[in-house]
Each structure stands twice: as C-alpha cells, then as structure tokens.
Prior knowledge:
Elements lengths: L4 E8 L4 E5 L2 E16 L4 E15 H10 L5 E13 L7 E13 L35 H16 L1
Parallel strand pairs: 4-6
Antiparallel strand pairs: 1-3, 1-5, 2-3, 3-4, 5-6
Amino acid sequence: MNETIVCVVGNVATQPLYREAATGPSARFRLAVTARYWDREKSAWTDGHTNFFTVWANRQLAVNVGACVEVGQPVVVQGRLKVRTEGREGQQQWASADIDAVAIGHDLSRGTALFQRPAKQEGPPAANRPEPAWETPRPADPQDGHAAQQDRDAVAVT
Length: 158
C-alpha cells in the first residue's frame, strides 16, 4: 500500500538478461536516465547527472522485454522503486536503485515502434460442457397462457 511508484524515461544501458526460473520468467537490464537542461550561457541543451536503475520484469512482461528491448533504445518504465544499501566487510557501503516494473514501452517521442501481440499459448483443452436450456417453459394450462397473451395485447394497444 505504501509503495513508491515511479515513471522514468531513459535509455537501455545493458542487454536485457532473460532467465527461466521455477517461479516463472524474469528479465533485468540497466536503465540510464540523464537529466537535461537549457544552458543560457551556451544557448544549448546540456546533459546533467546520469542516474542508473536496475529494471526487473517478471512473467509475460519479461518475455516481451527479452524479445524486443535492446541496448540504446529509449524506453519509458513504470514500477515500484526499491532503494537498497549494502556493505561488505572491508568495503564501502553502496546504494542500489531497482525498479520492479509494471509496464515498459518504447519512447515514441524519439522514434517509432510496431506493436505486436504475442501468440497465445495453447493450454489444455476445455472440458465439453452441455449447453444450458435457455428456453422459457410454456405455461401448464394452455388457457392461462392464451388469457395472459390477450391481457398483454390489450395493454399494448392502449
């Protein structure tokens, strides 16, 4: 419930690493996000600091990332931000920023893409179930049904 959801735009910095695990497919890659600003003195855009994120994708998103995301491509990533700090004996502490991706797509402001749905995998055949009887049963007494029809016709006329 109290998660940090982010949306970052950057370039794929490393080739996505795809793995099939017992828990399902997984993919990860590094994303470089460079801030740009307008330098008034130079009258030009200037690159600022670059942040690097490790992007994690699971299940069908991982399969699709492995199939179509390549180094250098501009992408938009949305997901949960997780910042970890670790330190080992004799080494300095370091921080890592990971994004557990919910959605990943190409940045169409910097190029074009062709969307293609993945082929559906064939699952086990569905069991044949009998079709339910949708017909309305006729009234038991034909006279009652005839009288009810006459009543409906009379209401419709008035």
